[in-house]
Inverse folding.
């Protein structure tokens, strides 16, 4: 099975933070500055984690070849993760991170997801998309120590997602069992710098409200480590909202506009700088940056932004 | 017989030590194997991981939060929020606090005066302690002006009304014995009111203390120490007026402490109405001391001034202390002591009434006076409340 990368490999890298590396976090007082200055070493101190960095870049798209088998292995594991500066959270994860790994297939590929449950509780994987009733991740609950293989043709093309569908649903989702699921169209999308952003939140004190909000994991991760993109090529973001408890979440870009493809399809497209998503809603953003420089992106619910869902693009030539 | 008795008494001394020695041994054994017992019973629940917020200060461009770790396990400050927004902060001392250790969190913040503000401190286990301040008010720094201001408040609320109430002394001297008994019972009534008020305040403050400071027992401790001290004093210095003044003085110290603290931390608007309310409330205290002073045949002006000072001056000390220092443990002890002292003086006044009141304790004058005392305190307290 040949792996063919569609287009040039995404030129995405993390910008080196400009401030001195010797500056250690917050154990000295700063003048009141607000979030505008919460960047790099001024942002809450989160350790750099390659596993989280890997979530930002999707695996490459493959050309359309009906019937090709795409294998993925997902293991449910209970792990303690750092969700904000110094805050440890007992998460339930697919493969050790919340969100789990990005699953990508081209339409008409045969998707085969091997699921093993090493967690303390029964779990499933429920994919959004078109598939047989017995592959829906609702009835075939996988007990502790159990295994199950989900197998179905990937369709329809667009931006999808997956999550655990065991009850209580709220608990199984907010604990971290979710991820992005990309189905590429038969006609390849034009080359772009591709990013995946899964919006999530963490209720660390169990009161049914999120204490922290984030993209792909820890609060303020992309404020601490801004995402470097280049102005000369389209930036494509696969965006999904899996925030529990709150009715909606959103994405707002500073200093530019983007084309927004609802559910990653062509039927509904808008040109905007802010989109609103309810839980389970997702889409694709395409940004052609007009300028270089540092641009903020965040939820346009100010509370979410100030509780961690805020980051920066470093746009270079 | 005598030798047997002597031997028996020696053995008795040794036997008396046995429970202590055995206790030390068993505690040592348990400490050495303690965890295995816990394992037998199952897993221990996780610790609460809540911080105890002792004090919040507002400085220009900065908020300072003093927190204590009230639990046996250590507790780490991970993240700080102000009004549900994560903010940069610095900690004086380490971020990880051992049992009962405190640290000051300094938050650079452009706070808005007179508006409510909520400080959140999240532990490394993700548990958030939220402390709400009703209105952000700049914390006074110790200054001669502020010192004078607090002193003046104490003087107005404590010393002046007690002094005014004492002016009833000449009239009380000329009154009929029945009326005097009624006024004495009124004193007992108002002291009972003050005692209950102080006790309730002590319990309220105690409820907010971390469990490490013990339960409600700390209130009993303060109460009993002051009650017994006054019982001892009542046999040494026979003057009933002095006892009444001490009882009222202890209460006024607590009252000053509460006023000073509330004012300094923006929990109380110290308006004219409130000051007048406290003054009206406290004039009755002067009446109580004056009634007790009718016992003494001749009272010098120095003696009167001393009585006013004992009853009223503690208010000044209280407002000073409350204005600059906040210690809830001290607050609990003082209010408990005030309750104990006031109840003891009620007992002393009761003794006086039993022997001296025409018709004894059950006469209409005494019952009416007592009821009147409670009613007056309640009515005037509405202003101060």
């Amino acid at each position: 099975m040949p792996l063919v990368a569609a287009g040039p490999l995404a030129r995405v890298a993390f910008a080196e933070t400009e401030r001195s590396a010797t500056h250690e976090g917050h154990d000295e007082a700063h003048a009141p500055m607000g979030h505008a200055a919460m960047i790099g070493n001024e942002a809450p101190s989160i350790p750099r984690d390659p596993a989280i960095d890997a979530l930002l870049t999707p695996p490459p798209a493959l050309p359309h070849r009906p019937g090709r088998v795409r294998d993925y292995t997902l293991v449910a594991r209970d792990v303690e993760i750092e969700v904000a500066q110094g805050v440890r959270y007992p998460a339930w994860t697919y493969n050790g991170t919340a969100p789990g790994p990005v699953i990508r297939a081209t339409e008409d590929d045969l998707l085969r997801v091997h699921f093993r449950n090493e967690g303390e509780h029964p779990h499933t994987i429920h994919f959004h998309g078109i598939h047989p009733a017995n592959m829906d991740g609702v009835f075939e609950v996988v007990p502790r120590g159990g295994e199950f293989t989900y197998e179905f043709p990937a369709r329809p093309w667009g931006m999808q997602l997956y999550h655990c569908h065991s009850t209580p649903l709220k608990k199984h989702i907010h604990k971290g069992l979710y991820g992005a699921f990309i189905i590429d169209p038969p006609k390849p999308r034009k080359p772009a710098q591709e990013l995946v952003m899964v919006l999530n939140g963490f209720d660390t004190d169990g009161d049914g409200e999120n204490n922290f909000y984030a993209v792909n994991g820890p609060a303020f991760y992309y404020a601490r480590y801004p995402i470097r993109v280049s102005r000369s090529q389209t930036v494509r973001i696969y965006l999904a909202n899996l925030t529990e408890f709150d009715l909606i979440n959103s994405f707002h870009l500073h200093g530019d506009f983007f084309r927004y493809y609802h559910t990653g399809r062509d039927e509904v497209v808008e040109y905007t700088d802010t989109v609103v998503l309810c839980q389970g809603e997702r889409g694709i953003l395409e940004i052609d940056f007009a300028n270089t420089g540092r641009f903020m992106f965040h939820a346009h619910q100010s509370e979410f932004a100030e509780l961690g869902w805020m980051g920066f693009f470093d746009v270079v030539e | 017989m005598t030798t047997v008795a002597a031997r028996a008494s020696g053995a008795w001394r040794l036997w008396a030590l046995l429970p202590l020695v055995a206790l030390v041994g068993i505690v040592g054994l348990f400490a050495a194997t303690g965890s295995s017992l816990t394992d037998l019973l199952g897993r221990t629940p996780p610790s609460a991981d809540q911080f105890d917020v002792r004090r919040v200060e507002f400085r220009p461009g900065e908020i300072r939060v003093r927190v204590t770790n009230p639990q046996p396990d250590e507790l780490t400050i991970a993240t700080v929020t102000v009004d549900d927004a994560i903010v940069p902060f610095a900690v004086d001392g380490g971020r990880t606090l051992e049992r009962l250790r405190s640290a000051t969190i300094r938050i650079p913040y452009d706070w808005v005066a007179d508006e409510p503000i909520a400080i959140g401190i999240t532990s490394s286990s993700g548990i958030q302690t939220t402390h709400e301040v009703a209105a952000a008010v700049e914390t006074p720094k110790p200054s001669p002006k502020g010192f004078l201001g607090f002193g003046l408040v104490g003087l107005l609320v404590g010393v002046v009304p007690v002094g005014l109430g004492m002016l009833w002394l000449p009239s009380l001297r000329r009154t009929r014995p029945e009326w005097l008994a009624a006024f004495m019972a009124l004193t007992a009534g108002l002291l009972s009111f003050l005692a209950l008020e102080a006790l309730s305040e002590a319990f309220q403050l105690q409820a907010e203390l971390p469990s490490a400071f013990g339960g409600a027992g700390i209130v009993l401790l303060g109460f009993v120490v002051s009650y017994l001290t006054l019982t001892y004093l009542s046999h040494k210095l026979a003057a009933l007026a002095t006892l009444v003044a001490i009882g009222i003085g202890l209460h006024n110290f607590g009252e000053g402490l509460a006023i000073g603290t509330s004012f300094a931390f923006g929990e109380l608007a110290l308006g004219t109405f409130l000051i007048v309310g406290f003054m009206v409330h406290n004039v009755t205290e002067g009446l109580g001391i004056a009634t007790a002073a009718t016992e003494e045949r001749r009272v010098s002006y120095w003696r009167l001034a001393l009585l006013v000072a004992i009853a009223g001056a503690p208010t000044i000390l209280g407002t000073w202390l409350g204005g600059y220092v906040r210690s809830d443990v001290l607050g609990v002890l003082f209010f408990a002591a005030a309750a104990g002292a006031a109840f003891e003086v009620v007992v002393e006044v009761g003794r006086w009434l039993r022997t001296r009141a025409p018709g004894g304790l059950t006469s209409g004058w005494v019952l009416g006076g007592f009821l009147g005392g409670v009613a007056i305190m309640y009515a005037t307290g509405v202003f101060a409340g």
Q: What stands out?
A: Chain A has two domains: 13-29+37-52+190-316, 61-184. Residues 50-56 of chain A form the longest helix (7 residues).
